[in-house]
Write a structure and sequence with these properties.
mainly beta, Immunoglobulin-like, Methylamine Dehydrogenase, Chain H, five-stranded antiparallel beta sheet, elongated, disordered N terminus
Length: 578
């Protein structure tokens, strides 16, 4: 009985299993499976604004970018300005930017700035007010520059106003004698206007104002801008190798302005100069101007100042027909170290240039290669000098260079640093120093490369040297008296005469000391002096040997002289302003 019961149960179980199997193979109705529940979306956070920038403008301003800082920003956040949605850029969870159109700030008011995050969740931030104030007339306090010489190029004029209170806006316009000039906003209290060459073609005074258009705007106070008859404080003069043009490096239109380079054409018969174009020297206090032996390029060494500039060399190409200069760039000093540039010289091949850096900090000579096409200088390093360099000269063979140096004061003992020149690379190699007088400041080599001469402004004499043709080393021949404070020396192209410009004293007439040169020994013999105008600074001789030119810094002029070919005596032709 027990076994029958077990058997019956087994048959029953087997039957149920068969029924289930048949159902799973389509023999019955299949069971239904429910899909998983849809997850509930994470709600967006409610945004918060902490700051906006800017937080105000004046009515009538142009479109601008508003930066919104806060929390809980998302990619779909939207900025509202005055109740209207504006184009919004997501910058992260804590920053948005929005473009505010000009129409939204056309009139005064305090539109609310909010940020909206969309559903689910989300919401609108608490508003922050943006202030649109009434446009008011601007105020100007400073111009830079404050003057230019007549006949100059176009230039950017910087206009500054008090801070705060200038009331400059993007629509502010600089007016030159009441006429609008192209203007851009520079900072919150500055404008820059482009002044054309025709605006400064003639000497006079221009009135500079700033005008804010629109209701509540108006014109500022006026500041005068001087257009001077010329530049002040000419420092150096150079004549091109063909004798067609002369170039003068000058301080500018006043003692605080950047310098200029003036071009003159030369009358080949009389030697008289005629003033031509004027270009900026691109820095303060130009000290020296040099024309390369090819006549294609000119270079100006700018001393700079202790506040805005550490000195530089400005580079120019020369128009062969007109003599006009075109700037091709500049090489600046070492910012913060006040390395002033005093003098620049080019070797006879026009491949290399050398710059005496001194007066402020440096006791070195910088070396450069010259691009034959553009004239642009490329540094190849610097070499130490035996003091503070004041002047550099290269001998006619291009094998040697000489630098007149002095000490820390006007009365310091000077010397001449001597170098050989690698004719392939242009690199200088020192061959020592030799003593000069006190206050050494100018050096020249005669055209044959046999003799060198150095002016000594404190000892009022000229040091004379012979040059070793193999080593370049100098041997002293002693010194000869000059006038008071000799500052520049030049030798005529034939090597027969030498001339020294004597500063004398500030704002008094100077002089030129004249000398003959012994062809065998190089010794100078005085032949007299001739007066210049106030405070001469530089002398140059025409390539023909027929004329000489002296810059007079105290009288803002150039003295022109003819040269007696037999005696070397100078005869005044006239003067011309700078």
């Amino acid at each position: 009985m027990k076994s029958d019961t077990v058997l019956a149960r087994g048959l029953a179980v087997a039957g149920i299993a068969s029924l289930l199997l048949l159902a799973g193979c389509g023999g019955g109705t299949p069971s239904t499976v429910s899909p998983p529940p849809t997850p509930t979306p994470t709600p967006n956070p409610t945004p918060t604004i902490t700051t906006i920038s800017p937080n105000s403008t004046v009515a009538g301003s142009a479109a601008f970018i508003l930066t919104i800082n806060g929390t809980n920003f998302i990619a779909a956040s939207m900025v509202n300005f005055g109740g209207s949605a504006v184009a919004t850029t997501f910058g992260g969870s804590s920053q948005l930017t929005a473009v505010i159109p000009a129409a939204s700030v056309a009139s005064t008011g305090a539109p609310a700035v909010t940020v909206t995050n969309p559903a689910p969740g989300g919401g609108i931030s608490k508003p922050i007010s943006f202030t649109i104030t009434t446009l008011t007339p601007p105020t100007i306090s400073n111009l830079y520059p404050t003057c230019v010489p007549a006949g100059g190029e176009s230039f950017p004029l910087q206009i500054a106003g008090p801070y705060p209170g200038s009331n400059f806006v993007t629509t502010s316009v600089v007016r030159w004698n009441g006429n609008d000039r192209p203007t851009t906003l520079s900072g919150i209290n500055g404008l820059v206007a482009q002044i054309s060459a025709s605006d400064v073609a003639a000497a006079g005074t221009a009135a500079v104002t700033v005008f804010n258009p629109g209701a509540g705007g108006g014109s500022s106070n006026a500041l005068p801008f001087a257009i001077t008859t010329g530049t002040v404080g000419p420092q150096s003069i150079a004549v091109d190798p063909a004798g067609q043009f002369a170039y003068v490096a000058s301080l500018g239109c006043n003692d605080d302005s950047e310098g200029y380079v003036l071009m003159y054409t030369i009358n080949s018969t009389t030697g008289a100069l005629s003033k031509g174009s004027t270009v900026p020297s691109l820095d303060y206090s130009p000290e020296s101007v040099t024309v390369d032996p090819s006549g294609k390029f000119a270079y100006v060494a700018n001393f700079g100042d202790d506040y805005d500039s550490d000195g530089s060399v400005a580079m120019y190409s020369i128009n062969a027909t007109t003599g006009a200069l075109t700037n091709t760039g500049g090489i600046s000093g070492d910012n913060g170290t006040f390395c002033c540039f005093d003098s620049v010289a080019v070797n006879p091949s026009s491949k290399f240039a050398y710059v005496a850096k001194g007066g402020c900090c440096s006791t070195s000579v910088s070396m450069y290669t010259i691009n034959a096409t553009t004239g642009v200088l490329t540094s190849i390093g610097a070499i130490a000098a035996g003091g503070i360099p004041a002047s550099v000269a290269v001998d006619p063979s291009g094998k040697f260079a000489y630098v007149a140096t002095t000490g820390d004061s006007f009365a310091s003992a000077g010397n001449v640093s001597m170098y050989t020149i690698d004719v392939t690379t242009g690199a200088l190699a020192s061959v020592g120093t030799i003593a000069a007088g006190t206050g050494s400041n100018s050096v020249a080599v005669d055209p044959a490369g046999k003799f060198a001469y150095v002016t000594n402004a404190a000892s009022n004499d000229v040091s004379m040297y012979t040059i070793d043709a193999t080593t370049g080393a100098l041997t002293s021949m002693g010194s000869i008296p000059a006038g008071t404070h000799p500052v520049s020396v030049a030798v005529d192209p034939a090597g027969k005469f030498a001339y020294v410009a004597n500063w004398t004293a500030s704002d008094t007439d100077g002089s030129v000391s004249m000398y003959t040169i012994d062809a065998a020994t190089g010794v100078l013999t005085p032949t007299g002096t001739i007066a210049t105008e106030l405070s001469p600074t530089s002398i140059a001789i025409h390539p023909s040997g027929k004329f000489a030119y002296v810059t007079n810094s105290g009288s803002n002029s150039v003295s022109m002289y003819s040269i007696d070919s037999a005696t070397g005596t100078l005869m005044l032709v006239g003067t011309i302003g700078t």
